[in-house]
Protein 1
Amino acid sequence: QVQLVESGGGLVQAGSSVRLSCGASVRVNLMGWFRQAPGKEREFVAAVRWSGDETYYADSVKGRFAISRDNAKNTVYLQMNSLKPEDTAVYYCAAAPSLAALPRGAWGQGTQVTISS
């Protein structure tokens, strides 16, 4: 089974940037990120195909976040810029054969990102 490990989370100040990484044990066509803030439901953040360079973003992060991939390393990154306190959440890496299957695909353990004001 696919194993996913997130890293890069931590405590940062508002307006700053952080980059999350997620390494997969095997190549997966579609990888992405979800997040869950305190008291909120888990929400989709971004996803990218490992071929075709197609990306998908939630409206709340468009223009601020960027997802990218490194096929040689089976790794996906989430560059988060202009961070806001409302971005505080546990960020989860996910992988699946397709975008539609992503919510029920493999999941990582999550990494906490906290933005201070």
Protein 2
Amino acid sequence: QVQLVESGGGLVQAGGSLRLSCAASGRTFSSYAMGWVRQAPGKEREFVAAISWSGGRSYYADSVKGRFTISRDNAKNTVYLRMNSLKPEDTAVYYCAAGPVVTTGGGAATGYNYWGQGTRVTVSS
């Protein structure tokens, strides 16, 4: 029902910034909570950030709080992740996800209904 396509990943030096985008299909985009989940090589998927369907509430993993900002533009069916002050430990494939409710923490790895293909972020030291 919902197709998600991430973009904006790439190679950046530590301390730099990137903005990830997730374009969603479907007229019901505004009804979904959206999240970003990442997976580093050899690691399990890790919750990064989430935003409610209205955009009024956002949630962040402690590891990215203060550096990353999630936002959404329902008119454009797009969710964003602004990443500032990037660290090498942020290196991962970042996945956009959608679901009926916000899911954070460990449950985010499996708690969303729809997933994008992922976009790779590499932060060099």
